[in-house]
Design a protein that fits this description.
This protein is 27% helix and 27% strand. The protein is an alpha/beta fold. The longest helix has 15 residues. Bound molecules: adenosine monophosphate (AMP). The site of adenosine monophosphate has 22 residues, from α1, β4, α3, β6 and α4. This is Electron transfer flavoprotein subunit beta. Its cofactor is AMP.
């Protein structure tokens, strides 16, 4: 079984976000970029399937600038077998990402696409769903458990009321939630080995897909500063503040 894992290069989750002075977006200059955390979980799950003898091959794919090679090398160091960079310096919206991924799926013919439920930069939570729709494949989003057997995937999803388990025919698209697994760190020897693994580059413009944005960012702003908390001396004082200041009781 072949597994395709899309991985996005995003601002590292531990870096404090700075908004550009003109409010047009987030300032990424000279800041640490990393693999989207939900995509690390997807890579980990693909590796687990390979270790269990279920997956035979893992292909990582990223759409982005030349620096997204680093993200792909991380996926290779974790355990992916090969990588594809679809190179573009444009900002690509989820629909265009889904269309590009569809063309890679058409080329690579994987049995499973496993990807993050959302990218932590745009928080769109759209790409997996749109990719499944474009492919006409079944989808299971927000997976917290994945079992593959007999050409089917059984996926437990985190939903509002608890857990829901779906059975899907393969090929399918699965998106990962936080509790699916804990991604491994790449060991130094594996980082070295990853440098020799195949990384193909494709120019996004060569795919004949419109990358033109359909959305315009009107403004980007930091959330308002939170006021510092206060220590109360008694339960009565707390109740009084909740009633008269916070007005929530
Ligand atoms: P989003 O719909 O933007 O929140 O992204 C959901 C998932 O789609 C991410 O976790 C990635 O797996 C995938 N994805 C989004 N953008 C890209 C990209 N530029 N390159 C590779 N994968 C991407």
């Amino acid at each position: 079984m072949k597994v395709l894992v899309p991985v996005k290069r995003v601002l590292d989750a531990n870096v404090a976000v700075r908004v550009k002075a003109d409010g047009s977006g987030v300032d990424l200059a000279n800041l640490k970029m990393s693999m989207n955390p939900f995509d690390e979980i997807a890579v980990e799950e693909a590796i687990k399937l390979k270790e269990a003898g279920i997956a035979a091959e893992i292909v990582a794919v990223s759409i982005g600038p030349a620096q997204a090679q680093d993200t792909l090398r991380t996926a290779l160091a974790m355990g992916a077998d090969s990588a594809i960079l679809v190179k573009t310096d444009e900002t690509i919206e989820p629909l265009a990402v889904a269309k590009i991924l569809k063309s890679i799926v058409d080329q690579q013919a994987p049995d499973l696409v496993i990807m993050g439920k959302q990218a932590i930069d745009d928080d769109s939570n759209q790409t997996a769903q749109m990719l499944a729709a474009l492919l006409g494949w079944p989808q299971a989003t927000f997976a917290s458990k994945v079992v593959i057997a007999d050409g089917k995937a059984s996926v437990t999803r985190e939903v509002d009321g608890g857990l829901e388990t779906l059975e899907l025919d393969l090929p399918a698209v699965i998106s990962t939630d936080l509790r699916l697994n804990v991604p491994r760190y790449a060991s130094l020897p594996n980082v070295m080995k990853a440098k020799k693994k195949p990384l193909e580059e494709i120019d996004a413009a060569s795919l004949g897909i419109s990358l033109a944005p359909t959305l315009r960012v009107i403004s980007t702003a930091r959330p308002p500063e939170r006021k510092p908390g206060v220590m109360v001396g008694s339960v009565a004082e707390l109740v009084d503040k909740l009633r008269n200041e916070a007005r929530i009781i």
